[in-house]
Amino acid sequence: MKARVKWVEGAAMIGEAGSGHALVMDGPPDGGGRNLGLRPMELLLIGMGGCTEFDVLLILRKARQDVTDCVVELTAERSASDPKVFTSIHAHFTVTGRGLSEARVARAIELSATKYCSASIMLGATATITHDYRLREVDE
């Protein structure tokens, strides 16, 4: 895997992944930025959310669960002093579908957290990571 980050001006940077996709990163005005894009630490948190949600959906599909929507909301705390690493992260999943098995959803989240989600496992070296979930039944 490769990536490239190019400084534009102030605190603005363009990050490009090996897949060819790019995004803008920037800092707040009081840090030399113009607030034009995501902060790098926000990207880490979003990356963890995408990684764990991808795993959960894949596991639930393999378990033949009829998932129609899935949202993971992340809340994180960072250390007050440098390096300002994440110290706690909470992931709240809202899984929507038809006839979902609560046991299978709980197991999918557990497997992602403990075995499959590389981002969660790496961030877990400095942060306490917790999860919970809510199931929503779709009306037919």
TrEMBL record:
<dbReference type="InterPro" id="IPR003718">
    <property type="entry name" value="OsmC/Ohr_fam"/>
</dbReference>
<dbReference type="InterPro" id="IPR036102">
    <property type="entry name" value="OsmC/Ohrsf"/>
</dbReference>
<dbReference type="InterPro" id="IPR015946">
    <property type="entry name" value="KH_dom-like_a/b"/>
</dbReference>
<dbReference type="Pfam" id="PF02566">
    <property type="entry name" value="OsmC"/>
</dbReference>
<protein>
    <submittedName>
        <fullName>Peroxiredoxin</fullName>
    </submittedName>
</protein>
